Amino acid sequence: MLGWRTFVDGKVGPYVWKTYKEVYDEVLLIGSALRASGAEPGCRIGIYGANCPQWILAMEACNAHGLVCVPLYDTLGPGAVNFIIDHAELDFVFVQDKKVKELLNTVCTSAQRLKAIVCFTVLKEEEKDMATQKGIKPYSWTEFLQMGKEYPQEIFPPQPFNICTIMYTSGTSGDPKGVILTHETVATFVRGIDLFMEQFEDKMTVDDVFLSFLPLAHILDRVIEEYFFHKGASVGYYHGDLKELRDDIMELRPTFLAGVPRVYDTIYESIKKALDELNPIRRCIFNALYKYKLAWMNLGYKQKNASPLADLLAFRKVKAKLGGRLRLLVSGGAPLGSEVEEFLRVTCCCFVIQGYGLTESCGPATFCFPDEMCMIGAVGVPAVYNELRLEEVPDMGYNPLEDPPRGEICLRGKTIFSGYYKNPELTRESIQDGWFHTGDIGQIFPNGVVKIIDRKKNLIKLSQGEYVALEYLENVYGITPVVEEIWVYGNSFKSMLIAVVVPHEENIKKWACLKGHMGSFSELCCLDQTRDYILSELKSTAERNKLRGFEYIKGVYLEPVPFDMERDLVTATLKKKRNNLLKHYKAEIDALYQKLEAQRRS
Asked: Which ranges carry the AMP-dependent synthetase/ligase domain (predicted)?
């Protein structure tokens, strides 16, 4: 059921496993210990740490006794952890050994309300002392299991309407929001996936293996694992270092991977780099085989039948680099580039699909179908367990009754959340007439396929009165080859848009070499010539996509370091935190606008 990698002499070893029976027995002990410690049905239990078997054991112990599982964000730091402990009124927290000090430090003042903490492994003496001084009872994992043996308790199965979990969304601004998901909501989702899968020839079996590396505190990984347990399949956890994820892939040889676009962009770039290193003849053969297989796939042939010869001669090597057993790649969290999606569909010898969903929809609300090439660049069709409609957004010019139909995506069904915890006002704002308003702008094609094209809340009005959709512009400008990442900024007091751009390092270095510019990547980002070059490329992209004059980027600041969670500039699903980006780059933004104003006056 659950696999993890052991460390031997400081090095990562092979995967070891717990069976379903072993997990079941341990879950009963953990649940008994919680009840013996004073946890009553409905009590909120926090889980704080990276993906591992103990995370799931704690979660299932909550399910067995009608307790509410509340994930604490492993990626958002003590500020969010402090807020969630207080807001959810947690009494107990299961915590990874690496996170104990963050939980007990002076910044996390809410920890004082806890009755007990249970470490995934063992606690150091100083950590025990810190907990005891705050009035918190500290337990190692073994101690808690022993308590469960000494004080066995009957399980207390929950009712469908009982709260299963309160999942706090990372949020791009303000405090996290607690999304309430009931047991009926989660069970309906799992059954809905069964119904979805019945449409296809390829079925999931107990032999399937999932590599878990997206945070369990987020909905996508959580519901995938729920479905795997429902099917009796296996889940193996990465060993904690995303930079060494390929090593986990080669060791586990998963049949199923789920990731965000940045993960697949990295895979795509590594394959393209390997291609560039081939001799010209082999590269030409690869490209010819690629076009040949793609042509047959576009004619409607399944990827496994489109060109067995191309798979044998070229693409089996790509599949081998992903473990050799991969059957399905799923992308979520943000749009996956069409070029990347097409390339992976052809070369990985497996299904590659996108989906769309939110924590509030208990995971994916739309799915792409395998082998349907018309769905590339889109997020598929509404799932069998929910309904989807578009609502007009007059300010942005989106009307579902026009051609093409565009508007705000609204969802309805039993997989939609019950509301935001302790926030009835926001709940009423988000759920109207039984429909959840997602804030995402979608377009529906004649064949029923949905594409995400914009974000309602990222709409600003420039000083001249023109509305600008920032996320839409970022998607347009993001396809520029010299751009790795881009954050577009404007406000109602300015008439021009500017941007912070993380240049594409390899492409910029190639350009610099041709132009005779020397220096490191950081030094190249400081050159006026580099800035002017990127501005000209952005202008070309704007012209090709027929953007209006006020949607052109007038000034850029070049940032050599990608937007990251360490600086709190993006969420764990890599959505931009616009308020935090504004704070971080305020000095650069002010300087850019001053320079542009001076140029305009002169």
From this structure: 9-421
